[in-house]
Every structure is written in structure tokens, then in C-alpha cells.
Amino acid sequence: MDGLYQETNRKLDQLTYDLRHLNTGFQNYKHRKIMKEEEEKEREELLNRRFTPNGAHKRILDIASTLGLSNTVIRLIDKRATQDKWIVFGGMIVTCIIMFLVVKYLT
Fold this sequence. Notes:
- Its main location: membrane.
- The chain crosses the membrane at residues 86-106.
- It comes from Acropora cervicornis.
- One of its GO terms (cellular component) is SNARE complex.
- By secondary structure, the protein is an all-alpha fold.
- It contains three helices and no strands.
- It has helices at residues 2-48, 53-67, 71-106.
- It is elongated.
């Protein structure tokens, strides 16, 4: 009888160990699956998000008004930003023309 009892306890302990091992593996699998789904969702959100300068511009104006800057100062800042944009575009065009001329006359 003692041998049968010991054998039963050994098998029960082995089954308990196997169950814990399988549960741990299943929990790891679920965790990896959840993490993968979250990563895919975050990736989709980032791909669908639009990074627009206008949105940043509006936020800057909101912050400026919160800080108490007057409307005149905000308009001057806005005008300067527009002027800077045109200066950058002009500089890019001039640079492209110079590069084209250099390549054309040196080759």
C-alpha cells in the first residue's frame, strides 16, 4: 500500500509541476500576443497620424496667448514666419539653380 501511495503522490506532483509549467508557458504566450497587438496598434496610430506644421503653428499661438503675448506681437511672429518660409523656398531654388549650372558647366 505504501508503494502505491508514494507512486500516486509522485505522479500527482509531476502533474502539478506540468500544470504549472504549462500555465507559465500559456501566460508568456498571452503576454507576447498582447504586446504584439499593442505594438501593431501603436504602429498603425503613428502611420495614420499627420504631422502638420499648421498644427504645431496653432499650438505655438495658443501657448503664446496663454503666456499673455498681445495680438500685435502674435501677428508680427506670424508675419515673420511667413517671410522666413519664402526666404527658405527662395534659397532652395537658388541653390538648385547653382547646382544645376555647376554640374552643367563642369561636365
